[in-house]
Amino acid sequence: MKSKVWKKIVCTALIGATCVSSLFALGSKSVEAATPKDTVSVEIFKLEKGSGADITNTGEVQTTTGHNVFSPSKGAVGFTLYDATSWIAVKASTTVDKLTTTQLNSYIDQLITLANTHKTGTNGAYNDGTFSPTMGIKKVEQINALSYPNGSVTFNNVDNKNRVYIALETKKPAVVTEASVPLVFALPMTKVDGTGFLDAVKLYAKNEISTEKTKVLKKTGVALDGTEIDLPNASFAIYKGTPGSGTKVSSGIKTSASGEISMDKAYAQGTYYLVEESVPDPYLVSPKALNDANNELRFKIDNSGYVFLDKTGAATSKTVMSLKDYAKPGGEKDSNEAGKAKEIGSEVEYTATIDVPQDVADWKTEAGKLAALKFLDTPSNGLTYKRQSLVVKDGATTLKVGTDYHFEYQGTKDVNEGFYINLFDDLTGKVINPALAGKKLTLTYSMTVTKDAVVESAVKNNWEIKYNNGPENETSKNIPNKPVVVTTGGHKFKKVGDDGTTPLPGAKFIVSQGTNYFEGYDTDGVTPKWTTTKANAFKFETTATGLFEVKGFAEGTYTLEEVEAPTDYQLAKETIDFTIIAPTFNADGSLKTP
To answer: What are the Sgo0707-like N2 domain coordinates in residue numbering (predicted)?
Structure first.
């Protein structure tokens, strides 16, 4: 039996053009003298729609200039070939070889309409599971991957005798905006020039690739008080593979003004993760976004699109990843005696506050790089920590060493000893009390003014925060708020004669404040002692230059009284009040006697 020769169908499938029917049949020239082979191969080439000219499917090899071969990085593509000959025969109540071209074309349109009712969603692939059971439709073969470098699928040994076939794209990635139109063709097919039958049929299917972007990350900055904002200008790198051993693909990707990162929907398929490179002040790089096993910004791109993963690599139901960066720890320090003169041996009361970041429980620790959140008070010479005076509170609750924080002395006892507390264990790097996250802690403690304090010179103690949350190397942060300066006061005096210039040695004076008399200095030679017994008062004696000085006194008003006059002079009849307030030590108080 000779094969039926149909005329070319008017509407053929075009690359880059819209087509309802996609039937390819014999040319209009007679080739009845030729004999087609029993079977042929059918190769379908998958192209990405480009700027090239439209391609008309003729069954022969075409020029595809301007259209790229579909990239395997964009996902898997598959086609299924169906024999629809029996379906048409049932519809027509006759065999296809008895149909005219016009009649066959009508049934082809119905076949395409039927196929389009079996798409997965509006733009999805065709559903073989529902289409192939259709009565009269016979699945010939399903191929779920393209072969490269041609980017094609080849169906071999296809029956070439009076058959009508439909090829459907039954597998496509989400990046393809719409599956290629059904390819319907009748066999046998002739060469375009009508000189014979085709032994190998070549067809071309095209897809449009999405130019849209997919939001993959929402970035938030959390202030110390818990206020959240969209965080722009945080920088990320994209890695491919498994966190800790992946390969960097790109870097310097910044979050937008709304704190978001979006990626091309057509990004190459694979498994990826984001690593945070830097964040704007005052925030810290998150320990959840490092290049290690704890990374939580994992995702993959497959045929379904972007899929966000948990730390085990399992798919989640997330529609976008999220990450919070928390503000650096902060605090203040103050003293109600700041700037006042304090005598040697007196105490200075300090109050400090510590703002604990809300994510301290998530800070990363590892051997050689322990997480830490330390608060250090380092006094200069002239101040030393009064032991056992520190009280740390969370609101009204007094915190305990070991249960809530670690404590260590530093410096030299009784000279310039300070201390530090650490909310993390010094040995393990584990946070001691996670419940302190996000809290404002209050520290009260005392420092003692020592003999090393230089009169009317600033005696400072430095309040510092040191932290290491894993991504950050140990960082020091001085607390500049309300710096505390303690000064010790003193006064110089000069005894002169009636002429106002002659210095008078040998005069003796005592100093009192109310009913207390200065008794002298302690064994250290600088710490003032006081007595209520006037007879025990220390006597200052003028030198050969008529000078003497008092120092190490606290700010206040004192009384100077002469108790022994210089030789050949009589006692001053009146006492002299003087005030110690910086700076007074370098000023002479000239005393005259009659």
So the answer is: 340-463
Kindly report the pTM of this predicted structure: 0.72
Domain 489-592 has CATH 2.60.40.10: yes
CA angle 251/257/262 to nearest 5° reads: 50
Max Cα distance, the chain (Å) = 158
Place of tokens 């005219």: 100
Q: Which residues contact 33 (CB under 8 A, 6 or more apart)?
A: none
Radius of gyration, CA atoms only, the chain: 46
H or E stretch at 111: helix 101-116
Closest CA to 112 of 161, 164, 71: 164
Q: Please, are residues 552 and 490 in contact by the beta-carbon 8 Å criterion? A: yes
Residues 213-326: name the CATH superfamily.
Immunoglobulins (2.60.40.10)
User: How many Å apart are CA 179 and CA 205, to the nearest integer?
Assistant: 9
Phi then psi for residue 512, to 5 deg, are -135, 160
Output the six-digit token pair for 251. Answer: 């870097």
Beta carbons within 8 Å of 39's beta carbon, 6+ residues apart: 156, 157, 158, 159, 160
Cis previous bond, 36, omega within 30 = no
* Residue ranges of the chain assigned to CATH 2.60.40.10: 14-207, 213-326, 489-592
Tell me the two tokens of residue 37: 């082979």
100 contacts: CB under 8 Å, gap ≥ 6 = none
Please give the class, per CATH, of domain 330-486: mainly beta
User: Do 334 and 351 form a contact (C-beta atoms < 8 A)?
Assistant: yes
Question: Measuring CA to CA, how many Å separate 71 from each of 126, 149, 286, 408?
Answer: 20, 10, 36, 62
Strand, helix or coil at 432? coil
Reference 183, options 15, 51, 27, 303; nearest CA is: 15
Residue 367's contacts (CB-CB under 8 Å, 6 or more residues apart) are none
* CATH level 3 topology of 14-207: Immunoglobulin-like (2.60.40)
Helix (H, G, I), strand (E, B) or coil at 441: strand
Structure tokens that stand for 292 in this block: 């290690």
Residue with tokens 């978001």: 260
Residue 260 DSSP class:
E
pLDDT tens, the chain, 594 aa long = 444 444 333 333 333 333 333 344 433 344 554 689 999 999 999 998 877 778 888 999 998 888 899 999 999 999 999 999 999 999 999 999 899 888 999 999 999 999 999 998 777 899 999 999 999 999 999 999 999 999 999 999 999 999 999 999 999 998 998 889 999 999 999 898 888 999 999 999 988 888 899 999 999 999 988 899 999 999 999 999 999 999 999 999 999 999 999 999 989 999 999 999 999 999 999 999 999 999 999 999 999 899 999 999 999 999 999 999 999 998 888 877 766 767 778 888 899 999 999 999 989 887 778 899 999 998 888 889 999 999 999 999 999 999 999 999 999 888 889 999 999 999 999 999 999 999 999 999 999 888 787 776 777 778 888 899 877 666 766 665 454 556 677 888 999 988 888 999 999 999 999 999 999 988 877 778 999 999 999 999 999 999 998 887 888 899 999 999 998 888 888 999 998 876 666 666 666 554
Q: How many CA atoms lie less than 13 Å away from 494 in the CB half-sphere?
A: 14
Helix (H, G, I), strand (E, B) or coil at 496: strand
If we measure between CA atoms, which residue out of 460, 498, 452, 463 comes closest to residue 590?
498
